[in-house]
Design a protein that fits this description.
By secondary structure, this protein is mainly α. The protein is built from four helices and no strands. It has a single domain, classed as Metal-sensitive repressor, helix protomer (Methane Monooxygenase Hydroxylase, Chain G, domain 1), CATH 1.20.58.1000. It has helices spanning 2-30, 35-66, 71-81, 87-106. Helix 1 (2-30) packs antiparallel against helix 2 (35-66). The longest helix has 32 residues, at 35-66. It is elongated.
């Protein structure tokens, strides 16, 4: 259980850093800062967001395996839906429903 709390704290710290960076961009836009400064700030956020996408992709892969999708399908699902919005979880639900239906139809 301690590892879960430790990972949660790391994830929350990452999200707080990203939030701070976004707020800094908002302030810079309000102050009408030069474009180069704003673009540099946006580039700084990219790494943090990429990390969250990786975490989401791993979570999606685990969910796909829980729904008994094969490893290749689980990996493909996570890579396709990880960068997407929260509709990725809707897609997992649809995929699990399709997997159940196909197993019922093939019986």
């Amino acid at each position: 259980m301690a590892h879960t709390i430790r990972e949660k704290n790391k994830l929350l710290a990452r999200v707080k850093r990203i939030r701070g960076q976004v707020e800094a961009i908002e302030r810079a836009l309000g102050e009408e800062a030069d474009c180069e400064r704003i673009m540099h700030m946006i580039a700084g956020i990219r790494g943090g967001v990429a990390g969250l996408i990786v975490i989401k992709s791993v979570l999606l892969m685990c969910l796909a395996r829980i729904f008994h999708l094969s490893w290749p399908v689980a990996v493909e699902t996570s890579l396709l839906l990880g960068p997407g919005g929260e509709f990725a979880f809707v897609g997992i639900g649809l995929a699990s429903g399709a997997a159940r239906e196909s197993s019922v139809l093939s019986s």
